[in-house]
Write a structure and sequence with these properties.
Helix content is about 75%, strand content about 5%. By secondary structure, the protein is mostly helical. It has a two-stranded parallel ribbon with strand order 1-2. Helix 2 crosses helix 5 and helix 4 runs antiparallel to helix 5. The two termini are about 40 Å apart.
Amino acid sequence: MSLADHFRELRRRVMVSALTVVATAIAAAFSYERIYNFLAAPFDAYKVANPTKNISLNFDQATAALSNLLTMSIFVGVLASSPVWLYQAWAFIVPGLTRKEKRISLLFIGSTVPLFLGGAWLGYVILPQSLSILYGLSPDGTSNIQQTSMYFSFVMRFVLVFGLGFLFPVFLIALNVVGVLSAQKLIKGWRVAIVAVLVFAAAATPTSDPYTLFVFAAPLIVLYFAACGLAFLLDRRKAKARPDWLDVADDEASKI
């Protein structure tokens, strides 16, 4: 395939991905009210459970509702169409891969989507408790009047951070597959990894409360050790497939 053919193929893949995102975003726009109610449910639940707290969501200008609709539609469009554009990216690079690399890359994509969605789901599940902690800091008798765009930006960032955080083991396994990180190095560095996870969780989460930090960091630590176990199995498999003559010194004769 010539360079021009590669560019044409890339353009086609990008167009398919972009059109899928746009189509999904348009579909999400028609379901805007349902999506709005779904994302606002944690806020509404806190408001009902704490009637003494004067909190509300407000549109601060005439175009705020339209801006909020577009932002939420694009966000949902990108998330919902992720299997399509991930597949398009994989299909573009797969012709240059060996049969083994194709199988491995497909497994990576197959694990990326459920891990991301699982992390995003966890973020949404713990969102009510995180909001309760944050709103609970407002003294009684005060008003917490939020811009709707700021609230939904917070929610979407909160969910997105959890989803991306759950891709941490995929990144580690990718480094193991290409030979950058061995299972031995991963296991030996578990203390540093736990500290790094805690720092990342504290910096990445929009809230600063210990509850959110723990709930986000605990699954990441479990996923780290799961990645260590999988890396150990992959290393053992690679060791069995490694020819014995590669371990023979240059000044020694190998067995025939």
